[in-house]
Design goal:
Chain A is an alpha/beta fold and about 325 residues long. Chain A is built from 13 helices and seven strands.
Chain lengths: ~325, ~325
């Protein structure tokens, strides 16, 4: 009997251990690693975690239900770099060069000639009108699915002009951690960028974990038509919407339909998005990446042609927005 | 020792039972009730469940990863009724009446006069132009947040003209079940409707479980401005986008950024959405609610001014689309 009991005891104990192990694997008790490990321990990081702790604490008067935890992020200069210039502009330049053989007239037509001759002065002189011309010539005329292939092929081979890295490695590690941290706390995270919708969507899910329908941006007109009996959407050389400064809240309202409780930008193009976000009732958080790190990244603000941050610097304090000092607050820049 | 062993045995057994109970509560073994209980058992229901089983079965060659399980639903006539006319039009009529005291000129100005005198012939004679005039007069000029309050107040008090029910009870129970069933199977479900974005968003989450950012529809222009230092979005009397027939795939591409694998409509206004959806590669499902039930709902198709279904009836078979016969396939209509 004793042997039998011992057997039962051991057998039961074994099952118990197995079962407890199973239970444990479902509810780990180990200390969780810091979800914001690339952020310097200090006031900035503390303010972010305090905000998240507050709005997710159902006993707190500032609790926000998960369905209303909307966070919006600018892309260029906020989630990935924007120097020496916006990556989509570098894509357009590469497209002009790749398409030039089929367009001999470009060799003597501005602003194409400027691109082909790497003549930055002439390119700048062509102004906004010139840029739109380049954008339409290289990004319209094909179907949406053909354009997706073009973007993916470019990303697979193109290298950043100064670091030599693929562009998708020019993203900011602390921001990737923040996106994950917010999602783990029930936030729905959106991009709200001046960049093109269809330039971003092919890769935002793989790189940021942000699915295509949570990407808001600028767009051109598209047209439904049948080709050989099959429907396609053709990209037309006409601007539909530019998502920048005062139109960012317009786009947030149109695409998201709720006012965010957290917004993160880096330039005056994000000013109104931050203003709109932080003017709502209840607890809100507005954040601005301040590019202060000339050694590990770039240092620029008031006088930059990309990511110009002037009004945002002057008015961040009175609006209660947090300036994230890249040199001070980020221990690591890129993954 | 034996007593001690017995004690250990009992104690261990107790913990084991508790633990197994805990494990069991995490993985219930009871039979699940039919998620599509309001659908008649038959070919239609079977085809829906077979499709879902196929695309969610990771061992099947037609498996679709959850991130690509996009389903789009029309609203008027698909998720809720659209007779005697579109509910948003009834909302506009009620708004004209509610606002008439502040607009004495409406008593002698068409199409307002027609609405105030319940003169349907004169209202119809005013045509699309007249309707747009009514829509702009009643749905623009206020902020987006003021409009949301107006919609919510109307829904809380307005009654359907023939059933006397609140409009949000004029939704279809089989469709509510289908939305839940798809979500339970990893689908992300969107509305793609000709109705106004901001007319739908205040209530779609509570009624359909569809959050504001998963609602695609028609829209008017909005403008960001500061009022007393606070930002607001003002609704302008200008159409931004009409989401109907050939523009539904355009809107899907712009808002969702992926081609759906399932689309459900009820009228020729959904034709291109179904065509776009079912022309993609892999397994696809296109469905059309056919309003065949004059007793429990309404029976209409080719000659109806709402939800006209003509081409869809003729071409459903050759496109492989499933006609859902309301009288035959739905055991219950409203919740």
């Amino acid at each position: 009997m004793k042997t039998y009991n011992n057997f039962i005891l051991k057998f039961t104990g074994l099952i118990l251990v197995l079962c407890l192990t199973a239970c444990a694997s479902q509810q780990p008790v180990e200390a969780t690693p810091d979800p914001l490990a690339s952020w310097t321990n200090g006031a900035t990081k503390q303010r972010i975690t305090a905000f998240v702790n507050t709005v997710t604490d159902s006993t707190n008067t500032d609790f926000v239900p998960a369905s209303q935890r909307i966070a919006t992020f600018d892309n260029d200069g906020t989630l990935w770099a924007e120097k020496p210039t916006y990556f989509q502009l570098l894509f357009i330049v590469d497209r002009v060069k790749a398409m030039a053989a089929d367009h001999p007239e470009w060799r003597t037509t501005q602003p194409f000639q400027a691109v082909l001759e790497n003549d930055m002065a002439a390119l700048k002189a062509s102004g906004e009108h010139g840029l739109i011309k380049l954008a339409m010539a290289t990004q319209a005329g094909m179907t949406t699915e053909e354009f997706e292939v073009i973007v993916n092929n470019w990303l697979a081979t193109a290298q950043h002009p100064t670091t030599g890295k693929p562009y998708t490695q020019m993203v900011y590690k602390p921001m990737l951690e923040l996106l994950d941290y917010l999602r783990a706390n029930g936030f729905k995270v959106f991009i709200v960028s001046g960049g093109g919708l269809e330039f971003m969507r092919p890769w935002t899910e793989a790189i940021y974990g942000i699915p295509p329908d949570q990407v808001v941006g600028s767009s051109i007109e598209t047209k439904y038509e049948l080709r050989g009996g099959k429907p396609v959407l053709v990209r037309l050389p006409e601007i539909h919407f530019i998502d920048d400064n005062v139109t960012k809240p317009v786009a947030i309202n149109r695409f998201i339909g709720q006012r965010p409780i957290l917004a993160f930008g880096n330039s005056d193009g994000d000013f109104e998005m931050l203003k709109w976000t932080t003017s709502g009732s209840g607890k809100r958080l507005g954040l601005i990446v301040h590019h202060t790190d000339a050694e590990r990244e770039w240092a620029y603000d008031r006088d930059s042609s990309e990511g110009r941050l002037n009004r945002g610097l002057d008015e961040a304090a009175e609006n209660g927005w947090l300036l994230v000092d890249m040199a001070r607050d980020w221990q690591v820049i890129h993954p």
